[in-house]
Amino acid sequence: PQGRHDLPGPSGLSHAGAAHVQGPGHQHLVFCEHAVMAFGTKNEAAIGKAGFVHPKDKREGDMASPAMAHRLVLILYRSGRMFLPPSVPAQPILPHMAFGDEPQAFTPSYNKFVSKYSRWGGDRLWRKDGLYDFVAVMERDLQARKGEGSALFLHVKLGPHTAGCLATTRPILRRFASGFAVLRRKIPDRS
User: Fold this and answer.
1) CA–CA separation, 117 vs 135, rounded Å?
2) Which of 18, 128, 167, 175 satisfies CB 3.0 to 4.6 Å to 46 for a cystine?
3) Residue 187 has pLDDT above 80, yes or no
4) Dihedral-angle region of residue 63 (phi above 0 means left; psi in -120 to 50 means alpha; beta otherwise)
5) What is the C-alpha to C-alpha distance for residues 29 and 38, in angstroms, rounded to an integer?
6) What are the residues facing 69 on neighbouring strands?
7) What does the pLDDT look like over 72-82, one tens digit per residue?
8) CA-CA distance, 137 to 147, in Å (whole number)?
9) What is the model's pTM?
10) How does DSSP assign 87-132, residue by residue?
11) Would you say 51 and 5 are in contact if contact means Cβ atoms under 8 Å apart?
12) What is the dihedral of CA 10, 13, 16, 21, to 10 degrees?
């Protein structure tokens, strides 16, 4: 298929160069080079400038996106800029929020939420450009060790490439997030 590339892994075996973001039920986003398959259609997307890399070969600063299945653990949004249905379990981004991304020194904040005022700094989530108006934190972000790449989010697409994250348009992100809405059932009155 178009957009598929076979990449050698650390063991010398090939695997498909694509990233899957698992959603609720059968809802998934499948990222290829410059497109994402979502809801039965091909849509605009951006991946790392260096393309896809085997997850075990991912390194901090390599500008590559890991080709793997991602599971979301948290959705964050910028209130007043990204509107999600109220039943979506998401947290607002606050002005002081950042995500630790400095593996060089001793940083207990690596791949953890920190304050932008922390002495270790981090990737600031409250931005003027709208890149992080929607941020989906993936399970890999919280499990990667120092040097294996940090802050690999699903976020708003602004340019043709990212620094390693997966990105797509606001309408696709909003629709995908809506799938996480808490279902409210009416309990029948048995009186």
Assistant:
1) 20
2) 167
3) no
4) left
5) 5
6) 20
7) 888 999 999 99
8) 18
9) 0.82
10) TS--EEPPTTEEEB---SS--TTBTSEEETTSTT--EESS-SSSTT
11) yes
12) -50
